[in-house]
Amino acid sequence: MKDVRITHVGGPTVLLEAAGWRILTDPTFDAPGRRYSFGWGTGSRKLTGPALAAEDVGPVDVVLLSHHHHADNLDDTGRELLRDAGTVITTVPGAHHLRGRCRGLRPWQQTTLTAPPGSARQDLTITATPCRHGPRFSRPVAGAVVGFALSWPTQEHGVLWMSGDTVLYDAVREVPARLSVDTVLLHLGAVRFPVTGRAHYSLTATEAVELCSLLRPRTIVPVHYEGWEHFHEGRAEVEHAFARAPLGLGERLHWLPLPPSRSAVGTTSA
């Protein structure tokens, strides 16, 4: 994707520089080692820290927050960062809970950030996309989650889509029917918890292949597959699944480096 810069901070946290905007996804900047409760008997320990400290991110125009109620998508340091962000786009329950400069979107609702007159920015349209953070009937427990599709006037090949934490189900299969996706930030990891057995709460590698076979994006950027103990599939499982995938999907995977120290940051231009 032309003129897009992607920096993977760690987990689901990505800094996007596109259309003149600085966009941060699901801010997580706490140090590793702590165990967090996700509710209903589930929880996880953070194993690795961010590649970039919150104070080193710089000014943020927009935060795309897929959901506010799990610390692997919004932790304590991330919440502090929200206060200084220009605009926060999230779920309707998330906007009600967080208040401030939050806009809540339901799946397939849109909002547009208008470029200031005379600036180098372009109008940025954000479309919320469906997510289900677990098996069927899990929404009352797992809560509301959304993904985000970004578009602006000079895009050439399609939208930039952040899948959000979801399993593959019918509403997510609608995304390739309704949107032309050029680059996807794909939340993976096959999240599982001991209390719920083999049920998974984010995309498995097999589901990711099926979804990308429908999407046919030019660039696939895996995120949110490492750094926490509740992930049950990592890079090896994803690479194995995509190596056997049709349409040359394995060649479209772009892994952003995640250095062990905050002194270095993995970046790419999509």
Automatic annotation (TrEMBL):
Gene3D superfamilies: Ribonuclease Z/Hydroxyacylglutathione hydrolase-like. Pfam families: Lactamase_B_2. Residues 22-225 form the Metallo-beta-lactamase domain. GO terms for molecular function: hydrolase activity. Keywords: Hydrolase. This is L-ascorbate metabolism protein UlaG (Beta-lactamase superfamily). It comes from Kineococcus aurantiacus.
